[in-house]
Amino acid sequence: MSGTRLLTGSRPPAGSRPPATDAPQPEPGAATAPQPPGSRTRFGLVVLALAAALLVSVVVSISAGQVRIPPSTVWQVVADRLTGGALGRAGGPHDLIVWEVRLPRTLLAVVIGAGLAVVGTILQALVRNPLADPFILGITSGASVGAVTVILLGWSAFGVYSLSASAFLGALAAFGLVFAMAQRSGRISPLRLLLAGVAVSYLLMAVTSFLIFRADTDGIKARSVLFWQLGGLGGARWSYLGLPAAAVLAGTIALAMQARRLNALVLGDESATSLGIGVERLRRQLFVLASLLTAVMVAVSGGIGFVGLMVPHVCRMLVGPDHRRVLPVAALGGAVFLVWADLVARTVAAPEELPVGIVTAVAGAPFFLWLIRRRLPLGGT
Fold it and tell me: Phi and psi for 338 in degrees, rounded to 5?
């Protein structure tokens, strides 16, 4: 009889121990799929290739323009500046162009491209929506309202940091509104979040247009703000690099430290909660950080769209969905992409210069439409 009960599983044998329930649990946020053989090698090769592509892109960007400068001269000027004039190149015919104009502009493109790609990666993970990015979810429009207010109305409550502070407050308020509108019964609908972001973006664009209309009388400020709204790096200076570079570096490191938790969050709130992750707290913290990074970048470069939408998807195709690998690859890929977009913006219609946001939109709009067709079925929620 006992043997029958043991085989049928109706009752455990006398004296048997129940299954252990205190086995080692996975680290919170460590819900990542097993990596296929060779994935580490592939990741390393992708990083090396992107790093090399970034270095080449920077040199090409500095060399190209109305005045073409040989790459060897670029290296000589930079080396001379870094060594305090030991090579005797200071004051040469190309010194001012390389060091004071093109190098800070190209480095700003590296910083902004990396930052936008990282923020887009985080937002897509937080809301589990492949169409999420700072531009589409209203963060960029909110930051633009804050920054334009400072430019046109002269608000200076925070001194030299008024532009960044105002842009940050605008970005945070905009996404807070979008996030509140997207919730129903404590849950977020991806489609509702997307639609709310589009609606808030249009509303804030109207507010920005109203500010321009009311504050400007001769059109000079309006043209300047319009160019800034479409995104541009033409005003880059060495003094503009410090704050965004520090913010993007620190923010990327902080986000990379949350990569495992992001991996779990992508699987769903219930799965993340079962691993001991405070989902709502994590979302709030990362939303604030994403808004801060976006605000700092918008304050110096204007509204550059689609970088945060396209680059993360391309990076996932290269290295898979694990955020421990996607985040550094996205930073490098975003930097390479924006350097080339800025190069096209200042050379394709020379001597005129296009806003870099136009170039990214030309590349991003078809990608956006392809993504909608591929990822969002009709009637999806």
Answer: -75, -30
- Paired strand residues for 331: none
Cα separation, 211 vs 126, whole angstroms: 32
**Packing angle between helix 103-127 and helix 323-347, nearest 10 degrees?**
140
Token output for 63: 């060399």
- The radius of gyration of the chain from alpha carbons, rounded to an integer in Å, stands at 25
pLDDT at 8 over 60: no
**DSSP category for residue 33:** P
| Residue 188: its H or E element | strand 187-188
Residue reference for tokens 């205190």: 22
Residues ≥6 apart with Cβ < 8 Å to 18? 12
Calpha distance 14→6 (Å, rounded): 10
| Helix axes 238-256 and 323-347, enclosed angle (nearest 10) | 160
Both tokens assigned to 129: 């929506």
Compute the distance between CA of residue 342 and CA of residue 362 in angstroms, rounded to an integer: 13
* Omega prior to 351 cis, within 30 of 0: yes
Closest among 307, 327, 304, 303 to 315, alpha carbons compared = 327
The Cα–Cα gap between 209 and 215 comes to 10
Residue-level pLDDT at 349: 83
CA distance linking residue 229 with residue 341, whole number of Å: 16
Full-model pTM: 0.82
Spatial CA neighbour of 123 closest among 132, 115, 114: 132
Question: Residue 80 and residue 337: Cα distance in Å, rounded?
Answer: 28
Q: What is the pLDDT of residues 150-172, one digit of tens each?
A: 878 777 777 767 777 888 888 88
Q: Which of 48, 80, 98 is closest to 332 using CA atoms? A: 48
Q: How are beta strands 187-188 and 183-184 bridged, if at all?
A: antiparallel
